[in-house]
Design goal:
This protein is of the alpha+beta class. The protein is built from 9 helices and 13 strands. The strands form 3 sheets. Strands 1, 2, 3, 8, 9, 10, 11, 12 and 13 form a 9-stranded mixed beta sheet that branches. Strands 4-5 form a two-stranded antiparallel sheet. Strands 6-7 form a two-stranded antiparallel ribbon. 37% of the residues are buried. The site of zinc ion has 6 residues, from helix 2 and helix 5.
Length: 315
């Protein structure tokens, strides 16, 4: 089974993805973006959140959900340091001595860590072993029709320190001025999850784990997504720049084989997704489709998808 989610969220005054600091100026990630204006195409630079940033947040939620029901998460991933068994030093914490056979290496890693099972890994030694992530996430980009209104503007902040006369040195400032570039946009992103890849070898396509554990891992993979969207705990600088806004729309599909919702950066993405699914049905493939908009909250839509998957025996 394959799950695909298109999310639209409004974020005002956010600093979710900062890329560099030059002096006292912290810049927001920005990407070139093709938009149409008066029938002509042009490129504008818009605030964006990287897929890497969203994937990191998802894996943090996944680690927490997995641990809460006693599923294995390795020490590195527990600390949200996703090194992913990248070399001998990290792999040795899971299996020692390290086997020669790539299949045995993959098996040991998958058994030891839900994050590397679901999120993939790259062991870059001899022999190299690679496992593709079972989940995919796009960049979050401004919705096309509103892209020209997306902004990133520096905001002035000051930090104060009380310095008494005796400790005051020549050029120590009592007030530090700094700028944080904040973004404001209606963003859209896509998240996919291939439930059939969890607990299954990427080398042999055979199961590595018992069926019960595979089902438990699929369920936590869904719950982690639920938690991430419901709590808006993704991106950086949440402590002082928690974005003002929230999810405005969300589309979920569950199909037997891979199918990805039409990107939520387009205004007609709900209709188009439905039309594309209708064709799939003509091929005899069953599917699940739901939308959260003004009538349904995102949590209800996500719960419906989880219930459908449970009904279908995914967990
Ligand atoms: Zn791990």
């Amino acid at each position: 089974m394959f799950l695909s989610v298109g999310v639209r969220f409004e974020a005002n005054v956010e600093a979710l993805n900062m890329v560099e600091t030059a002096g006292n100026y912290t810049k927001h990630r920005r990407v070139p973006y093709l938009v149409e204006e008066d029938g002509k195409l042009k490129t504008v630079y818009v605030p964006a959140l990287s897929g890497e940033s969203l994937a990191h947040a998802y894996q943090e939620h996944l680690a927490r959900e997995a641990l809460s029901i006693g599923l294995p998460v390795c020490d590195d991933c527990r600390r949200n340091e996703f090194f992913k068994s990248m070399n001998k030093a990290h792999l040795k914490k899971k299996i020692d001595p390290i086997p020669e056979d790539p299949k045995k290496i993959e098996e040991a890693i998958v058994k030891a860590c839900v994050i590397e099972d679901v999120g993939g890994f790259l062991y870059a030694e001899k022999p190299p072993v690679r496992r593709t992530s079972a989940f995919q996430v796009s960049y979050a980009l401004p919705v096309k029709s509103a892209a020209l209104f997306a902004t990133s503007e520096p905001q002035l902040h000051a930090r104060h320190a009380q310095i008494n006369a005796s400790s005051k040195k020549g050029n120590v400032s009592e007030q530090m001025i700094y700028y944080v570039e904040t973004g404001t946009a209606l963003y859209g992103f896509t998240f996919n999850l291939d439930l059939d890849a969890i607990g299954v070898s990427a080398i042999t396509s055979g199961p590595i784990l018992e069926e019960d554990e595979i089902k438990a891992r699929r369920e936590v993979a869904l719950k982690a997504l639920f938690r991430m969207l419901s709590s808006s705990q993704f991106g950086a600088k949440l402590s002082r720049f928690f974005p003002v806004g929230g999810i405005t729309e969300l589309v979920i599909t569950v199909t037997e084989h891979p199918f990805v919702v039409t990107s939520p950066i387009y205004n007609n993405y709900i209709d188009r997704t439905q039309k594309r699914l209708a064709v799939l049905k003509e091929f005899g493939e069953e599917y699940f489709f739901t939308v959260a908009d003004e009538n349904k909250v995102p949590e209800e839509a996500l719960k419906e998808a989880i219930d459908y998957l449970r009904e279908k025996g995914a967990f």
